[in-house]
Write a structure and sequence with these properties.
It comes from Salarias fasciatus. InterPro entries: Nucleotide-bd_a/b_plait_sf, PAR10_RRM1_2, PARP14_RPM_1. This is PAR14-like first RRM domain-containing protein. The protein is of the alpha+beta class. Helices cover about 30% and strands about 30% of the residues. The protein contains five helices and eight strands; from the N terminus they run αβααββαβββαββ. The two termini are about 20 Å apart. The model is unreliable at about 140-149 (pLDDT under 50).
Length: about 150
Amino acid sequence: MSADSLEKRTVVVQWPSGDVDEELLLLYFENRRRSGGSQIASVEKSGSSAVLVFEEAEAAARVLSKGHHVVHNVELLVRRPAAKDPRRLLLRGVNPGTSSEMIELYVENMMGLNTQDYTLLPAPGRDLVLIHLSQAFTKGLPQRWKCCS
């Protein structure tokens, strides 16, 4: 099965308030009449969100087109997963007081880059930094980074 097919069969479900039982979530999204979905290949729940992979891309498309989803009076937000871009990496857990120069040194040392190879885009809270590379990173990433690519 191709990665493109997997991407088309996947949706991310979030619920900002309340809690949703994983089994109830599964039953809801497998019910075509209620959610537009059908058979689910896998579900991965983590906190107040879940990643659902349907057996068929058409089911994911129907779920997304329905728009409004509610389970046990909990409103669900359903969207496509974020597209992966090999030219962008997200640096998480940055101390907001860390200087831009220190972050630049870290990125250059960890990735073997020069300053013209990337742009740093800190989030407003400065605890996240988007590393935008001038070209796709082809060197091997450190093992500890491979979980998130």
